[in-house]
Write a structure and sequence with these properties.
alpha+beta; Beta-Lactamase; two-stranded antiparallel ribbon; 8 strands; 18% helix
């Protein structure tokens, strides 16, 4: 069961028009998440990877400064980077939110990172609405985290879609 803050971001994403595919960034009203804005970030997928466009004050304090232009993967320890990359890719490919459960640096404080894909002005799925949600009260005062360590990745069922399953046709497995 996800934290209530994570659930609110995912519900806000699910309530957007065309959430059954990938909603437009323009349809997101940030005031819907006003009390969570310090923990929210917006990132953009480019040729060089996912880079932060903006981040809330809590997220920036956590990582020790502005994240504008900073790439996603260096925030993760080396052992977690491939899985962190796969989580982003999966959110865009499957058109649904992904929750990454991680530990913050040496403190090992647990967090959920919600990744919700959005379409940018061109219509391409290239924006990511994110939330960094601490899972314990001790995490509120943390700052200058050097990296995250990925623990688990959970996919959220997309609204208006049946879950994917395998079927057999003439003895061959198909999706």
């Amino acid at each position: 069961m996800s934290h209530s803050g994570t659930q609110r971001v995912i519900q806000a994403w699910s309530d957007l028009p065309e959430a059954h595919r990938i909603p437009s960034r323009a349809s997101l009203d940030p005031t819907v998440l006003s009390d969570l804005l310090p923990q929210i970030f917006m990132a953009e997928q480019t040729e060089t990877g996912l880079g932060f466009r903006l981040a809330g004050a809590w997220v920036e304090r956590l990582f020790g400064g502005s994240l504008r232009g900073v790439h996603w993967l260096p925030l993760w320890d080396r052992a977690s980077r491939l899985d962190a990359h796969r989580a982003v890719t999966r959110a865009f490919r499957e058109g649904r939110p992904i929750i990454v459960v991680a530990e913050m640096g040496e403190s090992e404080e647990p967090v959920e990172v919600a990744l919700c894909p959005l379409r940018g002005p061109s219509g391409a799925a290239d924006r990511m609405l994110g939330l960094v949600q601490p899972l314990s009260l001790k995490g509120v005062g943390l700052k200058d985290i050097t990296e995250l360590r990925l623990i688990d990745v959970e996919a959220v069922r997309a609204p208006g879609r049946a879950p994917l399953s395998l079927a057999a046709l003439d003895g061959r497995l198909i999706a």
